[in-house]
């Protein structure tokens, strides 16, 4: 069965497997909700939280937005999220752990890889 595949957004070359899923997660997390014409509910809009006050409510909103990626990414199931750091430049780091199912698009969840400690800078 085929692993998820597409094109690298940085160089246009073919991309497949976990690198493709990782790229897709970044796209989902950084796309503002309502910004895609045919898919108004696509995205999580984490970038909309940049420069938000560093309080418990903002942290919770960030984690909730990140979890919404699962709707658009059947190959990865988030098991844990943690905000590692927030910088004065308005960026923040999220540490993600979860399960990667390379054959999920075909309905086959028998093959699974654990992905732990993946750092994502938004």
Describe this structure in words.
This protein is α+β, with helices and mostly antiparallel strands. It has helices at residues 18-30, 56-67; strands at 5-7, 14-16, 76-86, 92-100, 113-121. It has a single domain, classed as Nuclear Transport Factor 2, Chain: A (Roll), CATH 3.10.450. Helix content is 20%, strand content 29%. A three-stranded antiparallel β-sheet has the order 3-4-5. The longest helix is centred in the first third of the chain and has 13 residues, at 18-30.
Roughly what is the average pLDDT, rounded to an integer?
A: 83
Helix content: 10-25%
How large is the count of helical segments? Answer: 2
Poorly predicted sequence stretches spanning 5 or more consecutive residues: none
Strand order of the largest sheet: 3-4-5
Distance between the termini: 32 Å
What name does the CATH topology carry? Nuclear Transport Factor 2, Chain: A
Structural class: alpha+beta
Largest sheet: 3 strands, antiparallel
**SSE string:** EEHHEEE
How much strand content do the residues show?
Answer: 25-35%
Shape, per Cα inertia axes = globular
Would you state the CATH class? Alpha Beta
Q: What gyration radius follows from the Cα positions, in whole Å? A: 15 Å
Looking at the overall shape, the CATH architecture is Roll
């Amino acid at each position: 069965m085929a692993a998820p595949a597409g094109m690298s957004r940085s160089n246009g070359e073919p991309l497949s497997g976990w690198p493709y899923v990782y790229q897709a997660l970044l796209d989902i997390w950084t796309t503002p909700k309502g910004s895609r014409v045919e898919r108004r509910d696509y995205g999580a809009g984490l970038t909309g939280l940049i420069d938000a006050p560093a309080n418990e409510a903002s942290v919770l909103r960030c984690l909730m937005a990140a979890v919404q990626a699962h709707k658009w990414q059947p190959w990865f199931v988030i098991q844990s999220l943690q905000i590692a750091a927030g910088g004065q430049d308005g960026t923040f780091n999220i540490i993600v752990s979860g399960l990667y199912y390379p054959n999920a698009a075909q309905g086959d969840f028998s093959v699974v890889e654990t992905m732990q400690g993946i750092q994502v800078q938004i």
